Recover the amino acids of this structure.
């Protein structure tokens, strides 16, 4: 087995352990713990020395860092950003409905899912449930019911003769409710779903209060193609980028700059949440790290004398304020926003800009858009391409056709919020936003190699 194949198989294991954003955050945390990173409490002081790493979770967000050997005000941050969430179908608060002789589950569409790809699949349930405690604050538990529990059958062609010529049209409210069970026997009014979830959480049904649950494909991820050149899996967009960023942080040695990986939630629905890239948590962490003093004393300004509110009388140098320390650290920082890129589709080649057709296993893709749907500019593109050249990794470029709308990423959001120079990149893939996606197996290790090099510059 080649090193490239082994890395792709590690991605497969990572994705199968991460059926939801909350599982992805927990899977990432487990890997960080195994690599020697310290689990931190946001509400407590951080006891981390230069060269050491820590992390914390908030819902589907995980933020990890390794302190540099020099303060951020001197060497800045090297940031890697990705997102843990993917488009899917999520259960409503009161989902059980009996119709036409079946128990069905009401779902909402999360993000820009391709509806039809959820039809005729064996679907399980995964997410988190919230349980009563002796206090007003509930207990949260992750569950993953990986066996076939649900199915959304397609309509037979005999009842929709025009489907192959006029296209399939699905109404999210009417046509996406999965069949879950047959109706309950008379006298049995207990919620079948509630019993199932309580059993999974190993509690009595009375303790179950609420949930965040999604339908998940039960088919395992795998390598495929004649020479195992492809990865076939759900949630490649964007757990493949989470895996790459996390693997790079674990593999990278300590450097002068402080290394940070932020795996956000809610990118697919706009990022304006506490766990999203438009939320405050990563900015607060960076400010905390910028003003922290594990490098051997208070952060002092060694620039020429100027007015300052506080002075260290022993060294006769002004102490830095939080805002100045953060601003000076950001001025020396760089950010890679990693989200999967559109590979050219052999059956729809005309949907691509003619000079920008990334291919699977052709290397990482630099994504550009002059209207700043991607945060890349000439300077940040040059940095990433230089890193690829140094790592002996091929690099590709993507621009959306001028007559098509361009998607976006966390890049413009996080980069704009933090004020940090940002490049948008991603490995090429097909079937984006499908229940089942495809990427190149050899691109997995290439992206990790470039990210690892980036964290050390």
């Amino acid at each position: 087995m080649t090193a490239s194949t082994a890395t792709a198989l590690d991605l497969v294991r990572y994705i199968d352990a991460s059926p939801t954003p909350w599982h992805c955050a927990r899977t990432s945390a487990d890997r960080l713990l195994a690599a020697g990173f310290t689990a931190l409490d946001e509400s407590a002081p951080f006891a981390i020395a230069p060269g050491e790493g820590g992390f914390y979770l908030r819902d589907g967000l995980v933020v990890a860092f390794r302190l540099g050997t020099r303060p951020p005000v001197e060497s800045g941050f090297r940031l890697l950003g990705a997102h843990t969430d993917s488009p899917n179908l999520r259960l409503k608060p009161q989902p059980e409905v009996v119709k036409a002789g079946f128990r069905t589950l009401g779902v909402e569409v999360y993000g820009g899912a391709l509806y039809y790809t959820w039809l005729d699949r064996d679907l399980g349930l995964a997410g988190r449930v919230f349980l009563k405690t002796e206090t007003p604050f509930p207990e949260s538990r992750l569950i993953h019911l990986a066996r076939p529990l649900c199915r959304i059958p397609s309509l037979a062609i005999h009842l929709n003769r025009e489907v192959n010529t006029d296209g399939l049209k699905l109404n999210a409210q009417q046509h996406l409710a999965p069949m879950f069970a047959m109706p309950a026997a008379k006298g049995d009014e207990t919620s079948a779903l509630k019993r199932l979830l309580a059993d999974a959480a190993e509690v009595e049904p009375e303790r179950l209060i609420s949930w965040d649950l999604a339908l998940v494909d039960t088919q395992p991820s795998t390598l495929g193609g004649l020479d195992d050149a492809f990865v076939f899996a759900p949630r490649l967009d964007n757990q493949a980028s989470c895996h790459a960023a996390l693997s790079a942080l674990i593999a990278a040695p300590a450097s002068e700059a402080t290394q940070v990986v932020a795996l956000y939630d809610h990118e697919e629905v706009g990022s304006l949440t506490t766990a999203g890239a438009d939320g405050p948590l990563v900015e607060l962490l960076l400010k905390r790290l910028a003003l922290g003093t594990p490098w051997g004393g208070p952060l002092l300004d060694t620039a020429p004398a100027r007015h300052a509110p506080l002075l260290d009388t022993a060294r006769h140098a002004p102490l830095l304020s939080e805002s100045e320390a953060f601003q000076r650290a950001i001025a020396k920082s760089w950010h890679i926003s990693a989200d999967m890129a559109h590979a050219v589709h052999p059956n729809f080649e005309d949907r691509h800009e003619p000079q920008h057709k990334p291919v699977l296993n052709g290397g990482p893709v630099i994504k550009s858009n002059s209207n700043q749907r991607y945060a890349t500019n000439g300077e940040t593109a040059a940095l990433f391409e230089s890193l690829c050249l140094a790592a002996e990794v091929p690099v590709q470029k993507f621009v959306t056709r001028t007559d098509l709308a361009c998607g976006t990423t966390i890049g413009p959001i996080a980069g704009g919020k933090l004020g940090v120079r940002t490049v948008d990149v991603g490995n090429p893939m097909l079937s984006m936003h499908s229940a089942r996606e495809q990427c190149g197996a050899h691109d997995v290790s290439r992206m990790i190699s470039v990210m690892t090099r980036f964290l050390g510059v």
